[in-house]
Amino acid sequence: MNKLLHLLRYRLAVPRVSWQLTLLGLIGGFCASVLIVLFIGFIRFLKELFAQLTVELPPLEHALPLVGVAIILLIAISLGLQYYRLGIPFVIYRIRTHNGSMPLKNTINQFIGASIALASGFVVGREGPAVHLGAAGSGLVGWWLKLPNNATRVLSASGIAAGIAATFNTPLAAVVFVMEVVLKEYKMHMVLPVLLAAACGAIVHHQLDLGHSLDVTLEQFPAMDWKIAGSLVLLGIVLGLLSVLFAAMLGGVTQASYRLPLTYRLTIAGTVTCAIAWFVPELNMTESEAVIRQLDGSLTFELIAALFVGKLVACSVALGLGIPGGIIGPLYAMGALATGCFLTLLRPYLDWDPALTPMFIIIGMGSMMAASLHAPMAAMVAIAELTNSPGVVVPAMLVMIPAQLMVGQIFNKPSMFVQQMQMQGMTYEQSPVVLSLQKTGALAIMETNYQWLSDIDDMGSVKGLVLAKEKGEAHDRLFYIDPDNGERLRMEGIDQQASLAIAYQRLRRVRKGAVYVYGDRREQLLGIITWPMLAEYMHKEVA
């Protein structure tokens, strides 16, 4: 068994398409899906529990967010406030800087805290926690098998895709989101396991009816005359401006409250949510309900406008003050509601065909998310999947492109995930060299053909690649003998799971010498990586 594991680790250290990594992506997707099922089941249980509490104690009906805050704080303090970094920005940060490993206590905080926030009425989405839990569940496979970090990183990305697919039933959009927002690259050896994990998440969604499905099929698409095209472009500009407004509000709340203790921040968030829900009882309406109830005519213009403003403020306050939850669901809902207001205000000036209303609202739902997160491809694929209508893609382009240009070009705003990371001090920028070397495990290029001396003074006429230690010293005081000049260079050890980026960071300052790679124990020497070997590999990659 150990031999098979060693062979698997050697194989996965090389960034190439492999059936082993693809199969592990499926297993990781299944593990992620199990966590999502438990998460959604726990939310439903809590909602029923809170509903019973409000029946027995009617005053609690308008104070549930504060009850939720008390429980969230209790859990956070019990686990340690240093483990309270949660959500998609934290996951992206860990993918880029820690190869996707998710600390257990952060994951527990995310599971329980987000469940309580969603059940108690905060305006947050469940896809953020689903992404965190998916990455943790799938990455656990890599951690348990002690796979190279480059493979574990792909497995964590696969779990993210499974989490999104299980939440929204949009497997292809989940894959595009991972490539466009999380990994920011498209490599075939990464795509296959991510695809399979997303398919696993979608199957789980179908089999267990996890909810949040949007049962709307678009059957009528307009001929693109100047009036329709102009309306779509104008909608894109409006949604782009609203995305900028939302980013400014979220950023302002985050900066203003950054130095406040967590207890104060969460209490303020609960109080504000209670106040808004008092005036707008439908505040906790999901994105699916926001679309369907507009289409069946059960929402008046005044209520649509009130819901949009209420969600805009409540979501900015909740996420800015640290309530655990996601941002995509609220963006979907705000986009749909803003589009409903836009159509109502535009109707007196255009000879409007009511049959086009569903198309506009669905496109608006995805466009605000696309502009805010800089994810137009994922948003276009998502609305096509949600509506089973590929024809929506072309009209969606006329909305999403101007919306994206307004946010990124006119106002020069980054993705809201990047904005949140910057505000929380999570620096994730890496040099191109490090990013490239993260994709390959140390096992892939290490040299195993070397000579070993138990005493560094016994050099004699030994030639070639030589490792030695000083007499009487511990095993971890190893030296590399430079074959060109005989210089003795102290070596540092790196774990068998490490990527070449770790070897590079150890050697780049002096640009000579070597590191040794060890196995399950530090005394288990597997091989070495010299600076010339690393430099040759980097030149090959660039070429």
UniProtKB/TrEMBL annotation:
Q: Which InterPro entries match?
A: Cl-channel_core, ClC, ClC-type_chloride_channel
Membrane topology note? Multi-pass membrane protein
| Single GO term (MF) | chloride channel activity
Q: Where are the transmembrane segments?
A: 21-43, 63-86, 107-125, 154-178, 190-208, 228-250, 262-280, 300-319, 331-350, 356-384, 391-411
The answer, when asked if 4Fe-4S is one of the entry's keywords, is no
Where does it localize? Membrane
Q: Which organism is it from?
A: Neiella marina
Question: What Gene3D superfamilies does this protein's entry cite?
Answer: Clc chloride channel (1.10.3080.10)
Q: Which GO terms describe its cellular component?
A: chloride channel complex
- Tell me if Ion transport is a UniProt keyword of this record: yes
Name under which the protein is recorded:
Chloride channel protein
Q: Which UniProt keywords apply?
A: Chloride, Chloride channel, Ion channel, Ion transport, Membrane, Transmembrane, Transmembrane helix, Transport
Where this protein primarily resides, as one coarse class? Answer: membrane
